């Protein structure tokens, strides 16, 4: 047994996070840990890595009981963790970041730069990445940073590798590479604790699956004993009727049209598409294909160089987010913690931020109206929070995303651009967000949804635009959009079909 | 609900408690401190700090800082004196001092907001440039022979303190109210908490930031005038070290130095505590050598509390970084 936690109990300020949870990991095994956000997965990981101490229960590593786990001890015992948000030093190079995790020289030992680079290049090669070791980590994309984290864990020759939503920022191709790394770890008799909201991955990788819910262990089962439906049911405690609530909606006029858009700085060219009222246009593509840049251009963050944006058939000059908002366009960005919500502010102030004129009378904020509106959002979007005065930073990821949505719904836009609306969001909230998208489409909103998750794109979109290298390769109708076709277009493979407009 | 309110305003409450404890000690050991003349002197001496601190609170809330206020203070005082000597009526002199401050604030704002120079560097540059520029123009000479109506704003020495204090407190009330009830106030908090998210919410981040500096400049002009009229000549080196007093009061009052958190009530209390601590120690018979040390300890305590009160997320990120 590589790792064994028994009867672990932990409470934060009287709020129970874990109750008598047991978890074990064999050599050469991938043990998936699933549950909604707030189920206790992070707390369990923190206990294993020594970041927090359990109130009760025992922890053993390689059969040895560890009385007091600390982060340094867990590292020394061969436990490595890769988090959803990579924690690299942005100003240091890739090689330096890797060296910091691996080298154990004394404070005054001279640094062997050549060896550092060689080790880094070797590790990156082993995980199949072509990242220059001398690049500062700041310049790496999110997936590249994730890969550096993985290289660090491999380099540390960790016996226990904990992966917490490692694929949240990765595209399918990078996910495949990650899976190869997991397979290699398994061959070397390391154990992997794999946390993911993406059930496809869990079923592909895991040998055993443990479900946590509200701090309790619901079950630990071999993968073969579980079906997708039964797993979801265990996670949320109720059966989900359908995975995607997409229903046909009668389409209205064209709400947003983009003609021959070019934005050299953002690497976009020849982009044309139109979205009708009631329609959901999915935008698929690999990370780096220009999806987010397209959204940012339409929203006025990086104004276009050439081309036109039309709203309701009239040209709109969009040179700033404020102008986009005035034109009835809303944008819920990808990285909600960085861009979507203001963590220090309460729900009520976050919800009204894009919409202050509407809750104001004669230039004054009408606190009563603001609070009534916020309460309405909390109820309608089922935001779980102690009160509307709770700071958004204290909420779970799914609930933060709902607050980001609430901000834009209160502005009643005509066009809603969603960038990875359900990334890192628990299954229950995900279904609720999809449901909400459907309701908004039925109310006549034109929705543009960027997503890296193919099932989401295929399940929710009326049409799918596939981007590659800064351009739209094709726009597929719902019945033409098969996983294979979309992937082929995104990878720019021949045989992906001729461009369909 | 009561507990959340107490939790949210714990800094204001603890500073108020510190003031209460200090007052109690004074009431027992040195009741002479509460002599009306002494209190009035203390109030007058601290009004400029209070008025500037109102503007500084806004600037710090938006995540910026302005260390040039001492230099702006000196220039505005000189300009007020020059205008008064040219025979201008006092209301116009006051407007001139505020306008001069606003213009200098706008320079800071332009350097920080559109040009994106870090505010500590930009205002360090203007602090030195303005101070040296003033020294060069005045050649170090003080402004003397001020007209009759300049001193005490043309009011009597007895009524002036009430007029000045009234102005300051009305301003404080107005700012406190505006931060909570005007979209502009909400924007200041949003910009200071998260610039990117504020921009994506459609706020004009550069305008909000620059406006803070302009406002601070104008208030510094007003403070300079209210301070200058207490004397019959205007030094050309006024306001040395003023920026530190002001920033210290704002930070002690609970405004987060990284922006996004803070209240006007806290700033009022911070000015009160730091303003009374020096004289209070003298009254209590503590050696003058200890004054600065104790002031420093108060500031350090306030900043340390902020440092330990890091946001739960950034704390988690720090832990994650430490573990990785």
Write a concise synopsis of the structure shown.
The complex is a heterodimer of chains A (501) and B (324). Chain A has 501 residues and is α/β, with parallel strands linked by helices.
Using the 3D structure, state the CATH architecture of chain B.
Orthogonal Bundle
Shape of chain B: globular
**Which blocks of ≥5 consecutive residues of chain A have pLDDT under 50?**
494-501
Largest interface, C-beta closer than 8 angstroms, per-chain residues: A-B, 49 and 32 residues
Taking pLDDT < 50 over at least 5 consecutive residues as the criterion, the unreliable ranges of chain B are: 311-324
The name of the CATH topology of the largest domain in chain A is Rossmann fold
**What fraction, in percent, of the residue positions of chain B are helical?**
over 70%
Q: Return Rg of chain A in Å.
A: 24 Å
Question: What form of chain A results from the Cα inertia axes?
Answer: globular
> Within the largest sheet of chain A, what's the order of strands?
6-7-8-3-9-10
Helicity of chain A, in percent?
Answer: 25-40%
Oligomer status: heterodimer
Task: Give your account of this protein's structure.
The complex is a heterodimer of chains A (501) and B (324). With 501 residues, chain A is of the alpha/beta class. Chain A folds into three domains: 3-236, Rossmann fold (3-Layer(aba) Sandwich); 241-328 and 413-501, 3-Layer(aba) Sandwich (Rossmann fold), CATH 3.40.50.300; 346-412, no CATH class. Chain A is built from 17 helices and 22 strands. Chain A has a six-stranded mixed sheet with strand order 6-7-8-3-9-10, with helices on both faces. A six-stranded mixed sheet of chain A has the order 16-19-20-13-21-22, sandwiched between helices. In chain A, a hairpin with a 2-residue loop joins β9 (208-213) and β10 (216-222). Chain B is globular and about 55 Å long. Chain B is built from 14 helices and no strands. Chain B has a single domain, classed as Orthogonal Bundle (ABC transporter involved in vitamin B12 uptake, BtuC), CATH 1.10.3470. Helix content of chain B is 74%, strand content 0%. By secondary structure, chain B is an all-alpha fold. Chain B has helices at 2-8, 10-29, 36-61, 69-85, 90-112, 119-138, 160-181, 183-193, 195-200, 205-228, 242-252, 264-283, 288-308, 312-323. In chain B, α3 (36-61) runs antiparallel to α12. Classes of the chains: A alpha/beta (501), B mainly alpha (324). At the A-B interface, α2, α10, α11 and β18 of A face α8, α9 and α14 of B.
